Amino acid sequence: MIRRLSRRALMRRAVSVSALGAVPRVAFAQAAAVDAAPYVNLAPAAAQTLEAIVARLIPSDASGPGAFEAGAARYIDRALGDALAAASERYTSGLAAVDAYAQRTAGLPFAALSPERQDALLRDLERNAATGFSPSSAAFFDMVVGHTLEGTFGDPHYGGNRDFIGWDLIDYPGLRLSVTADEQRMRADLRSARLSAYDLPMFDADDEHDDR
What we know:
Blueprint: H1 7-13, H2 44-57, H3 67-70, H4 72-79, H5 88-106, H6 115-126, H7 137-153, H8 165-169
Helix pairs in contact: 2-4, 2-6, 4-7, 6-7
């Protein structure tokens, strides 16, 4: 049975992504770059395609901004030079394949298509119906979904979850070192701490040692 892209389904998948970050503690920049800054590891055309993809995977809607606004594409780009370096070639070839498939089937690069047409093409990738991918379009789709979730809902230290957009979407109140009895009540209204884990004094943000 073909799964359908939906914000609700992708939000459910987010619970498998640690709110403290899904990659090792490494030295790439703590905050996402401003949108005007050039991408570090992806060529401009590839970056534009990736931005369009993440914007459709978790789109902005009435409940709030989505993955693009949270800086998920920026997170992926930065991580491709470090923690996700092994996936760099897969992104380069996969994003080129997305645009080639869009040109063959719709006559335009992926980023230039309407949101509805973009969703249709992403469904083709998801059900492994898109051609020109190695090893498969479904494998590329699943990789991008996983990293988009990391970049949207992970700790802001790693360059995504800009302005705590992801945590606000799922009502995650942030890391707490202690929880009061009142805060443990069912349906307790927890005030968001809006802090990266690495803002806590126990962490040295300049320490590059991975102690996990």
